[in-house]
């Protein structure tokens, strides 16, 4: 049985292979501003000022911001050295939200 975190990280890998991720800080912020994404990821060990910028933008544009994983976990999950990215696909976003709420219930 894979943990919820494992399942979420696996889904990120699938989203990457499906070409549904927006990679990097600037493209991710642009996508958030343009309402092109529903969910963004920022590393739990990322910089404080960047973290605040993403938190503010995400809440303003009603984007779910996930900060539960380290740079290493995110990089390993998508297979690219990027720890800031967003998901430009409703299906992937919905499934990840579902897994997160299941994780929080347990």
Automatic annotation (TrEMBL):
Superkingdom, taxonomy of origin: Bacteria
Gene3D superfamilies hit by this protein: 3.30.1330.30
InterPro entries: Ribosomal_eL30-like_sf (IPR029064)
Protein name per Swiss-Prot or TrEMBL: Ribosomal L7Ae/L30e/S12e/Gadd45 family protein
High-level lineage: Bacteria, Bacillati, Bacillota, Bacilli, Lactobacillales
């Amino acid at each position: 049985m894979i943990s919820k975190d494992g399942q979420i990280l696996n889904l990120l890998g699938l989203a990457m292979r499906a070409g549904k991720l927006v990679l990097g800080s600037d493209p991710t912020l642009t996508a958030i501003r343009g309402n092109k994404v529903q969910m963004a990821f920022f590393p739990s060990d990322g910089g404080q000022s960047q973290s605040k910028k993403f938190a503010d933008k995400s809440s303003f544009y009603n984007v779910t911001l996930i900060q539960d994983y380290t740079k290493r976990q995110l990089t390993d999950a998508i297979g690219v050295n990027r720890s800031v990215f967003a998901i430009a696909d409703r299906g992937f976003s919905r499934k990840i939200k579902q897994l997160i709420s299941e994780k929080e219930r347990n």
